[in-house]
Amino acid sequence: MNRNRLHRATVCTALILTALTFVAGPTQGAEYSGPSIVARSGDQTLAVGSRDEGVVLLYRQDSTSPRQAISSTHSTIVGARLVDGGVNGVLFSSWQDQDGAAYTAISLDHGETWKPERVIHPTIALRAATLVPGEQVTAPAPKYTAGSDSQVRIVQFETQSLAAWRQRLVELGAELLAFIPHNAHVVRMSSDVERNVAAEPFVRWIGAYHPAYRLEPGLLDELNGPNLPPRRFVLQTFRPGPTEKSALA
Q1: For the whole model, what pTM was predicted?
Q2: What's the rounded Cα separation, in Å, for the pair 81 and 113?
Q3: In a 3-state reduction of DSSP, which class is residue 76?
Q4: 8 Å CB contact between 128 and 220
Q5: Is the dihedral of CA 161, 165, 167, 172 positive or negative?
Q6: N or C terminus: which one in the chain shows less Cβ crowding within 10 Å?
Q7: Is 134 left (phi over 0), alpha (psi -120 to 50) or beta?
Q8: For residue range 18-61, what is the model confidence (pLDDT) as tens digits?
């Protein structure tokens, strides 16, 4: 069963401002004109202000703390969000520019400091297909579709894959099997574990990992063709060792 689910954590008002770009690391104590709060998470806020170099995205731990610049741009800031990841003091912010490019910035220390912003690619690149979570995902032909009892899923994160995110999935009972671009993992988990994983604020999407997704490009066409010529195939298991390999014998 597909659970195509985009996790919408702390949602904020979309704000569009046009300005001049300059990408900077976090700075403190600077003066900004007209900061306008666009996102909240508890006492923490994100605001958009302006300075000589353009529009600046500003983080503040509370009303008594100085603002930190986590991004500056000469493009447009749209739909900024501030999310408490719920794990070991990890926070993240996400936003888009006027061309639809998505960005995220991460703090690993409760907002004391922020990592440089990164472009986030929403697609999931598989061997035989490219998935776009949030849009219609076409299932393969029935004989190449995962069964209802399959526990192997794709989990995509809101940000790049972090050790904190992966550890949290393990704590919930999931088994991480492989990384997939972009920001996703192949995960083995029960339906109960999947429900708990889906509730995590850093999880963007969960979907089935169909057998068709694991085939080399062109092989599916050969399998569906009228005459499959004799050839040698390489079969790969998720884990090394005899346990999984014995199922292929």
Answers
A1: 0.81
A2: 17
A3: strand
A4: yes
A5: negative
A6: C
A7: left
A8: 332 333 344 444 567 778 999 999 999 999 988 776 889 999 99
